[in-house]
Amino acid sequence: MRGKFLVDGPPEAPVTVLLAHGAGAPMDSASMNAAAAALAHEGLRVARFEFAYMAARRDGSRKPPPKAETLVPEYRATVAALSAPGRLVIGGKSMGGRVASLVADELFAAGRIAGLLCLGYPFHPPEKPAQLRTAHLATLRTPTLVCQGTRDPFGTREEVAGYALSDAIRVLWLEDGDHDLKPRQRMSGFSAADHLASMAAAVRRWAEAPGG
Q1: What's the pLDDT score for residue 62?
Q2: Which end is more exposed in the chain, N or C (fewer Cβ atoms within 10 Å of the end residue's Cβ)?
Q3: What is the pTM of this model?
């Protein structure tokens, strides 16, 4: 732990990936630990942080997650506080990626970030496909990579195919993956480790030239 960041990977990596957690789990959840380790294995520097409501839970607070839009100033301040020696990609797991997507164009236009990475984007709440969280994604200008399981209850491959998404967004589909990108191995022939390795390798290739 370095200050308020949990950092993995080479300190002088050419790309730093800033990741926020999902709505209900901290920055050191099993899913976040596994994703960070996979990305670090690919030579990326990964910095994780917690929103204040989640950090307060470590002291016994049980505040529910606030609306994603209200966390934008906190994400913006975190970017300002992070020291990134090379290119910076912002993003997160689920809600964390959604918050990052709301501030991405502002930071990209200012030359402060190179791209946006969303691990399991919450396109809609589970079992509520009509409550879309995609309006701003139609006009997003920031180079974006979304890593999504094909059976993610927050947005399956079939559902996402019908959305109006910006040409700046690329989607990496992981076969039979759930919201944590985990497949049912007997159904898909892949393991969770396989999908994390594929995700991390794809992120590294994309991060080398996110606008390409």
Answers
A1: 84
A2: C
A3: 0.95
Which domain CATH number covers 97?
3.40.50.1820
Q: Which domain holds residue 198?
A: 6-208
Strand partners, 91: 19, 117
Helical pair 30-41 and 192-208, crossing angle rounded to 10 deg: 50
167 inside domain:
yes
pLDDT tens by residue, 92-107: 999 999 999 999 999 9
Of 111, 103, 105, nearest in space to 73 by CA: 103
How far apart are alpha carbons 61 and 107 in whole angstroms?
Answer: 31
Residue bearing tokens 């996402």: 160
Rounded to 10 degrees, the C-alpha dihedral 189/193/195/199 comes to -160
| Residues making up the chain, counted from first to last | 212
